[in-house]
Amino acid sequence: MASEFQRVKLVNMFRAFDADDNGYLDRRDFEALAERWKGLPRVRPGSELAARVEAVMLGWWDHLATHVDTNGDGRVDLDELLAMVDLLPTMREAVAATAETVFDAVDENGDGRISPEEHRRLVDVWHGEHVDVADVFDRLDQDGDGYLGRPEFTDLWIQFWISDDPAEPGNELCGPVPTLT
């Protein structure tokens, strides 16, 4: 069962993914998300990376539809999504594989690391709009080298999806988490 912290974090994610703002996630929302990612320079339509991004996004829709669309209506509401929280720790490898594709998509210059600017674009693509990420990157960059390397990014990505600890920096990988009220 999702904690209050995870609920706040996932409500933010749910809103970002609900492209048509109808209060449900469905396959079209994940298709729209994959399309947003094609706005990144390395995710050119028709490229191998664009195909990987689309496969990852639609694969996660398939996971949701299979595991938490309990009434089989082809739509996932927030409560159904929150049920996925219990499953994600058992899907650690799938979460890490997603991080690999996202990293490749965001690493615009292919140098094997994500700069603060590349991270900002990740957050904007994630949300479909500009999001203020002031000071977030400094919390993410645990080794202080000014970049996120692939292993560092993967650890943060796993924290984002699985963590229930508000102190873990990965919770802010896709933008600041609204404060609990």
From TrEMBL:
UniProtKB keywords: Metal-binding, Repeat
Q: Does the keyword Repeat apply?
A: yes
Going by the entry's taxonomy, the superkingdom of the source organism is recorded as: Bacteria
Q: Does the keyword Repeat apply?
A: yes
Under Gene Ontology molecular function, one entry of this record is: calcium ion binding
Q: Which SMART domains match?
A: EFh
Domain EF-hand as annotated: residue spans: 5-40, 67-91, 94-129, 132-163
Q: What is this protein called?
A: Calcium sensor EFh
Q: Which organism is it from?
A: Streptomyces filamentosus (Streptomyces roseosporus)
